[in-house]
Amino acid sequence: MGSVFKLSLTPRQEDRAIAAAGLLGGLLLIAFRAYDNSGAIPPWLVVLPLAATAALELFRRSHPVWTVSLGGLVFAGSVFAGSLIATVLMYTDLLYAAVLYGSPRMSRILHLTGIASTIVLSSLTFLYGTVSAALLVAVVCALVFLAPVWTADLLREHRDKAETERLRAEQTALLAELDRREAVVAERARMARELHDVVANHLSAIAIHATGAQSLARRQQRSQEDPLMAAMAVIRENSVQGLAEMRRMIGLLRAGAEGSYEAPKLDALDTLLAQAGAAGRETGLAFEAEEEGERGELSAPVELAAYRIVQESLTNALKHAAPGTVRLRLAFRPEEVEIVADNPYRPGEARVLPGARAGLVGMGERAGLLGGSFEAGPHDGRWRVRAVLPREPRAAEAS
Fold first, then answer.
1. Could you give the 3-state DSSP secondary structure of residue 327?
2. CA 59, CA 55: separation in Å to the nearest integer?
3. How far is CA 359 from CA 70, 167, 344, 378, in A?
4. How many whole angstroms separate alpha carbon 347 and alpha carbon 321?
5. Per-residue pLDDT for 354 more than 50?
6. Which of 44, 51, 98, 296 could form a disulfide with 68 if both were Cys (CB 3.0 to 4.6 A apart)?
7. Average pLDDT over residues 143-166
8. What are the φ/ψ torsions at residue 285 (nearest 5 degrees)?
9. Considering the entire predicted model, what is its pTM?
């Protein structure tokens, strides 16, 4: 099986290659005296226009007007000095480059001069020669003066159309992206309104009623150690904290920027444990936590996921755990963070609460999005939740 090699040249290198090929090919033809009037014209006289045209090829892109103008004079001189096919071909390339890389005005000028030269030369040949000679001159002039100009003009037209289509496609993509962003912003605003009008209002009502219940209990001169007072304090504190976090989330949705939302961090675990301990005291639950290793700096997504997994694990323990001790362990390793929460397991039919198992699904999704792992279930007579998160988020692998 053969291999195909593609030689890629820069525009400058391409111009040099054209000049070198034209010069070497012309010298080879001159060596074999393959030019007009080779018996009467010495070779060095044919070399001069050849070398001049090859030198002009080096500037065919950068100075198309000058090269085609000087090239016309050199071409006229080469006709009288012994017409060489290599010089003629390089001159047609100068015409081609002048139209392709020059201004539209240059294209019009070369069209007019090419047509005029063809008409004049063929007419003179017809007046002082034969009809067949005039037709031959007309064909040759059209090939030399008009064919490269027409070819370059067509190529330039197609190139301009392609560029126009490319710009139009980019504009369409930009408009589609703007429409998508506008739709996202509108959806964010709708979600923010729903959260504010429904969830936030309910949390506000819970906080207000809990405060009212506390005031009523104080008027009844109930002791602060009264379980009712403790329960009302926990309800009010959790509802106020949930309302504050809900408002931050609403601000995030309305602003559409992460900077407007202050995500919770693992530094707040002590407060989370204290709240869980106060809420579970009446049901016989105690909470303890330990950390292993150096916490160090965690990326924001990993720290947020770890906090939410701990929060959801403690909430599930308050809902479903049997009386006993809920143990939380966080192990910080060089490459990963391990979170283990276990609590006394109540076998048999558990209480069916709204949103049952949604928390487990959410924790698994958080771990999976970061490229970590998650498992939950009975373990040695207790219910265990275990999550392993990488310190640096990575793409999750589909299993």
1. strand
2. 8
3. 82, 48, 18, 16
4. 10
5. no
6. 98
7. 93
8. -100, 140
9. 0.51
Say which residue, 355 or 181, is predicted with more confidence: 181
| Residue 269: count of CB within 10 angstroms of its CB | 19
Helix (H) or strand (E) holding 342: strand 336-344
The mean of the pLDDT values for the chain is: 84
| Euclidean distance between CA atoms 66 and 102, whole angstroms | 10
Q: How far apart are CA 50 and CA 78, in angstroms?
A: 8
* Interacting residues of 322 by C-beta distance below 8 A, sequence separation 6+: 343, 344, 345, 346
Q: Decide if 261 contacts 252 (C-beta within 8 A).
A: yes
Tokens for 125, please give them: 């040949």
The CA R_g of the chain, rounded to the nearest whole Å, is: 43
Nearest to 126 by CA among 116, 134, 138, 115: 134
What's the CA gap between 44 and 56, in Å, rounded?
Answer: 19
Amino acid at 206: I
Q: Is the pLDDT of residue 51 over 80?
A: yes
Strands 285-292 and 324-332, how do they pair?
parallel
Token duo for residue 193: 């309104």
For residue 129, the 8-state DSSP code is S
SS3 content of the chain, % helix, strand, coil (to 5): 65, 10, 25
Q: Which domains does the chain carry?
A: 11-170 (no CATH), 284-346+355-399 (3.30.565.10)
Kindly report, residue by residue over 77-119, the tens digit of the pLDDT: 888 888 899 999 999 999 999 999 999 899 999 999 999 999 9
Instruction: Enter the tokens of residue 314.
Output: 């403690």
Residue whose token pair is 């000087």: 70
Contact 94, 57 (CB under 8 A): yes
Most confident of 192-196, 267-271, 348-352: 267-271
For residue 37, count other CB atoms closer than 10 A to its CB: 11
- Beta carbons within 8 Å of 349's beta carbon, 6+ residues apart: none
pLDDT tens digits, 286-316: 999 999 988 888 888 888 889 889 988 888 8
At 250, list the tokens.
């609403």
Is residue 184 helix, strand or coil? helix
